[in-house]
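Q: Hi! First time doing this. I have a protein sequence and I read that you can turn it into a structure. Is that right? Here it is:
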Amino acid sequence: MSISEAIVIGGSAGSISAMNYLVPAIPATISIPIVVALHTMKGGDNFFLERLKTSAGVKVAEAHDKALLLPGTIYFAPPDYHLLIEYNRHLSLSCDPEVTFSRPSIDVLFESASRVYREHLTGVLLTGGGCDGVSGLKSIRALGGTIVVENPSTANTPFLPENALKELNADYILTLEEISEFIKGFSERG
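A: Yes, that's right. Below is the predicted 3D structure, encoded as structure tokens:
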């Protein structure tokens, strides 16, 4: 397994709660960027993001178009925008149509990130329903990246992790607590 240069995280139902658990545990010394796409309500705000900023040791930001990805920062897709990573390792926002009934789409983020980082990418799929993220994980797998899926037996909503595990083998199937420890490890690997 190659050393990752970025982590992408996606989730649906229950994922805001999951991120409220994960983000405060991530140390400020994390050596790579983390980019997140969660299914949020159209026209909604990112109030939870403001709350995370006050509890996080790491920098938390809403993604902005053309922003350069920096280590030690967690970027969240704004509501109703797809979030992509460009080849120059900048972020890109898109209002393209929904993918698998979602904008932001986990697949869009994962697929764009896999083309940029290839075997140096870790994709984490959290709790949720539906199948958004499964195609993106396949792209990460095809290009040699690492796949982490939240354990369906402990996920808030197990259907998305279950659907992913029906389609492909994950490198790691972890509880939320184990995912937290896994991500913390990137502060020691840089």
